[in-house]
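[step 3/7] fold_predict: job queued, chain A
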Amino acid sequence: MDGVPHLTQRAIPPGDRMRYAFTVPDPGTHWLHPHVRVQRERGLFAPLIIDDPHDRGDYDVEFVVVLDDWIDGADATPDQVLATLRRGGMNARYETPVTAGKIPDRSRSWHYHVPAKLASPKPGITPMPIPARLASAVDYPFYLLNGRLPTAPHTFRAKPGQRARIRVINAGGASVFRVALGGHRLTVTHTDGFPVQPTTVDTLQVASGERYDLLITLGDGAFPLVAVAEGKAAQALGVIRTAAGPTPPPDAAPDELAGRLLDLADLRATPEVRAAEHALDVDRALYLTGDMKTFTWRINAETYNAEKPYAGITPVPVREQEQVRLVFLNQTPMYHPMHLHGHTFTVRSVGTTTSKTERPFPSGTRKDTLMVPPGERISIDFTADNPGQWLVHCHNAYHLATGMATIVSYQH
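[step 4/7] structure written:
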């Protein structure tokens, strides 16, 4: 069950149906969605929650939180947005008429540092000049939490003192959300479905496709659950209510948003799922590049064609049971949430594209989606234990639709 047409299975034709029968490999917070053009941008997705029979269930209530950025039906379709981006030139951007001029771009103040110049060590790849704008190229008119606007927020109900498990899924097409709960700290217990040693923070960033599980002991009142769209002056909002009181305003800005932010190094796997380090059989660099003039995004200067997956790209060849390392080098001014199908991986090191110095990550934490900031180099390892043809791609819907993908190809 993978859903990548022309690669791992056929697409479901209009009016047709397909029944999936599969053995669930791992419990956790997951989700399902298509990989056809920008269909996901039209709301074709759903949570997939797999309960762990061995989980002690150390919580009283459970909330599923789905974050989304929405434009379809407001003033354009996602396909029209994509067409606008492709003819936008070096300043490619879609500004919705609904909120034009009302959502200022704040990318200059975004959390990560971006080098002044991105050099390319790979022949034939020209680094992109870095514009001032670094966040999503789409100004969405609406940011939603469980399908609702901040002016009419979804309300989660519980009792004071109860422990809540909150499963956060970013189903957005192009937005990174910074999540915080007013008056509370967040204890992170899982990422992408896999347990980590509990770590407590004030706020965390969730890239498109990522999932996080949080444990919180709830106070007494009505509290804003805020998901700020990074680089924009806009947000999604929900309310966790344990008592009577006024509903938080749509623009609620809890102090926790400026508090301690979850760092990748905070995520350390629990012993039962920790991935051991092995000698490598395959070590492949994947250069993330692009062209803002045509809004085309590439891996290793090659553009993936969803209709003809093997045309014009060089897959990553692997054999069953090999130990594989992929090194993502982001040479663009954009953030790329990279997702590997059919496997989970561990983050082994983080550095920059212009330095040989790396920060090792021996924690063995397992993920399937990882945000690669501009100018950074991130190495991931995985075991080739699931034979097939598997997509590796940016989870930004518009980047995938314009070619930022390649294939992990099992060889016989």
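[step 5/7] annotate
Residues 345 and 382 are 5 Å apart (CA to CA).
The longest strand covers residues 61-70.
exit 0
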